[in-house]
Amino acid sequence: MAAQLISLADQLPYLVRAIHALGQRSDYHDEAEELAQDLSSITAMVAAKFTNNRTAEGILEALRLTVGCISLGLAHAHLHDDAEAALDHLIEHGAERVFQRGFRLIKELSEMPEVAMLNAIDRAPQEHERRLRTTFTRYCEADANDYWTGYQTFRREWDNRSKIQATLECAKWLRKHHHNGAIRDLDMDADGVIAIALIFAIPGGGKIVAKAGQKDLEALLAALRNNKPDIEQSWNDFLNKIPPDYQPMLRERIEHLRTSPIITMLQTLSAKAKPTKAGLAKLFQELQNHGGNEIDVDYA
Amino acid sequence: MSINLPALRKEFTELVIAGSTERAEAAFSEAAEKFGDLAIVEALASIEPQVTSLHLSSFDGGKLSLATLLVPPKAWAESLAFFAAKWRDEDIEDEPEVLAEALFAHIHGVVFSTDDHDRRRALLKACAATDSGIMALMILFSMAPDDILETADRIDTMRNYVTAGSESEHDVVPLAVELYHATQDGWEQVLYGLFPNYMHDPDAVREQHASEDEDAPDAHRSTQELLYQLRKLVPQSKAKDRTVKKHKSLGSDIFS
């Protein structure tokens, strides 16, 4: 397969390519003037709001962010990466609208979780503002004279965060349907909640457990010893109780869990009539590796 | 043969902007020979004031220009507003006298280039009818506050019979007297502008001015201060009737 060579000119920020296309047209004076004015006023506003409009450095940074954010807006408009189409789009809607679209994408992205955890700090208004700022500067920074991969980077991050968001939502659902009443903690480790739910689903019956402690673990061992359940069947029972939206993700987790040491540990320990203390401690430790903060360490 | 006024205006404007005052002047004399002085007056009246200013400012009393002789009073007064556009901060700061002298040479040159009293007075009247004209005259007078105070005295006593007096006076005095004859309002405006307290208490102003106490504040505004003021009055090129924008501006809504 021949390597594909793509010239730098085809990889510049989308806005820059659109401007190049404008330069190729025969009569571009009016459009160019309006575009130039719009771009400078946007840059000025970005400098005033996000960087520093009193220093050359701040304004230059604002220019880079403007180039990136408009390019993002253009890329998102599905124009098949075509500079002419981007230019038409830009002229038809105006640079400000395109910037706005890019900025809204950034805003949405900034509201999506970066990690699958919840804590009280996330809900503070300043935190909101700070996240918007960092997301904007991280994903819109673009050099007008260099390769631009802003849209791919943005999409990748978008996909990541969508997955994380789905994880969080699934964990929230599990907490809400905890077998003896919804759990209303402000903090949450979504991966922990899911791991616990899957481990404690092993005895079968489709019981939903979102938080557990030592006693639950002992009860789990007892149930395994007495019933000798078919693990796969148990998981199926469990999945049947879960909304279909969350099932594919849970199946993925089950794939990982199936081969993890905790399953074998559970099986060997439950085979014995009376597990040793050391064995129990080890199992509990392993459970903590999966459940994290969602495991109650107090013996209650 | 009829004169093509727009063509002359365009040629003149282009020559001046290109910095070629001599050739602009030559274009004028050629046109004057062909069509008469009136044609030049017409042309000068319709040329943009900043262009006129650029052209006129390269002439002063030492060099005579057809434009200086023929510029219509109103066009000249408007062009004065742009005189300060080229002044730099350093120059105003370091040598205000030089700038004031240049301004004086220009105004004096234009006003006294003619023996025609009516034209002189029309020029001064037009000049005193604009803010920048008043400010420019204040600058000139601020170069010789003593003589101006003295002239004010003489005007008070002699009214319409006042003339420029002895030869030891500053050159600005004849201009002041001429201004008084052209427009009394204008003269008073300039005087009160230069000595802010004069209207309320002329004696106190005289006293303050005569006082030898070096720490006492001046009774009159300084040349430098006035130069800054005049430069502030330079009309900014306004964003004029641009083609209507296709899109309504969103302003800071772009972040919403």
Q: Please, could you describe this protein's structure?
A:
The complex is a heterodimer of chains A (300) and B (256). With 300 residues, chain A is mainly α. Chain A has helices at 14-24, 29-49, 56-76, 83-93, 95-111, 125-140, 150-176, 190-199, 214-227, 231-240, 247-258, 261-271, 277-291; strands spanning 117-118, 188-189. Chain A is 65% helix and 1% strand. Chain A has a two-stranded antiparallel sheet. The longest helix of chain A is centred in the middle third of the chain and has 27 residues, at 150-176. The termini of chain A are far apart. The model of chain A has no long low-confidence stretch (mean pLDDT 89). Helix content of chain B is 62%, strand content 0%. Chain B folds into two domains: 1-82, no CATH class; 86-234, no CATH class. The A-B interface holds A 30, 34, 38, 41-42, 45, 49, 91, 93-94, 96-97, 99-100, 103 and B 243, 245-247, 249-256.
Overall geometry of chain B: globular
How much strand content do the residues of chain B show?
A: under 5%
Question: Termini separation of chain A (Å)?
Answer: 64 Å
Q: Structural class from helices and strands of chain B?
A: mainly alpha
Q: Approximately how much helix is present in the residues of chain B?
A: 55-70%
Q: Over all CA atoms, what is the radius of gyration of chain B? A: 21 Å
Tally the helices of chain A: what do you get? Answer: 13
Q: In what order do the strands lie side by side in the largest sheet of chain A?
A: 1-2
Tell me the total number of β-strands of chain B.
0
Our count of helices of chain B gives: 15
What is the average of the pLDDT values of chain A? 89
Give the overall pLDDT of chain B as a whole number. 79
- The secondary structure category of chain A is mainly alpha
**What's the helical proportion of residues of chain A?**
55-70%
Radius of gyration of chain A: 27 Å
Which chains share the greatest interface? A-B, 15 and 12 residues
